[in-house]
Amino acid sequence: MTSKIYVAGAGGMLGEAIHKIFKDSYILKCSDIDKNETWIDYLDFREFDLYKKDVEIFNPDYLFHIGAYTDLEYCELHEDDTYMTNSISVENAVNLSNSLNIPLIYISTAGIFDGSKDHYDDWDTPNPICTYARSKHIGEVHVQNYSKTHLILRAGWMMGGGPKKDKKFIQKIMQQIKDGATDLFIVNDKMGTPTYTHDFANNMKILIENEEWGTYNLVCDGLTDRLSVAKHLIKLLNLESKVKVNVVNSDYWKKQYFAPRPKCERLINKKLNLKGMNKMRGWQECLDEYIKNYYSDYLPRP
Question: How many helices (H) and strands (E) does the chain have?
């Protein structure tokens, strides 16, 4: 009998990848407050009674709780809404998955670390420095302490979903280029690890099917920074002669991006490596594939 997965908060970039990777092997029910696909049903998982009823009717074998507010500035300005969405709803998901005796899959973030180290493995101690990171860390701790069976996956700088769903660094650069920008202002003091949603979902599937429960870093291979990612992207687009990359520090963007951010969000998949289960490719290869599959109109013509 084919297993069933309930995916709560499936309207974003990761939901798109999970749907693509899992739909041929599992029966999926996907929900979100943003019903932006035909395969998504409307549900606000903050309304716990409705969330509980919808999941119980579907009677899944797994509960994926993947939705969250990820705009750091919004989170700083709307603390209560952030904690309701990113923390309290996770506690509800734990209770729900425990009552159904099914595994809970929760998505965390590299942002839970304070950035004082050069990189972080799976066992480093989190120390969140902003509302968003704190709200996600609260969820992570609750899942670790109270969920009977769970998989916590920490993502890095997420990329995926294309112009329709990507609200992160890659799409912001691509939008500037589409709008005709000839100058980009890229920070040189933020380090991290890109994470391609499709690789993330694929490795997630492997862990679930092998019942490798627990907490894992799950990012693309290669420690990098914002500036290197931007330069690779401009080179990929063959725009080096048309678009100038101006190097700035984070103070340049402090009015627009005022939420505290760690200097370093670099993760390494140490636990996956030790288990021989790390299927994440290098970030350059993944970025190349992402642009080719979602932004073909931007690529130079042969």
Answer: 12, 13
Distance of alpha carbon 26 from alpha carbon 23, whole angstroms: 5
Beta strands at 150-155 and 104-109: parallel, antiparallel or unpaired: parallel
pLDDT at 3 over 90: yes
For residue 3 the two structure tokens come to: 């297993």
Q: Where does the pLDDT of residue 276 fall: very low under 50, low under 70, confident under 90, or very high at 90 and above?
A: very high
Nearest to 270 by CA among 203, 212, 219: 219
CATH of the domain at 63: 3.40.50.720
Residue 298 has pLDDT above 80, yes or no: no
Asked if 14 and 200 count as a contact pair (C-beta separation under 8 A), the reply is: yes
Q: Residue 151 sits in which domain range?
A: 4-161+194-222+265-282
Task: Return the bridge partners of 154, or none.
Answer: 108, 217
Would strands 244-248 and 194-196 be described as parallel, antiparallel, or unpaired?
unpaired
Within 8 A by CB and 6+ apart from 33, the residues are: 11, 42, 43, 44
Q: How many domains does the chain have?
A: 1
The CA-CA-CA angle for residues 77, 82, 88, to 5°, reads 155
pLDDT in tens, 67-87: 999 999 999 999 999 999 999
Q: Rounded to 5 degrees, what angle do the CA atoms 101, 107, 109 make?
A: 150
- CB count within 10 Å of CB 281 equals 17
Residue 301 has pLDDT above 70, yes or no: no
Residue 229 CB neighbours (<10 A): 22
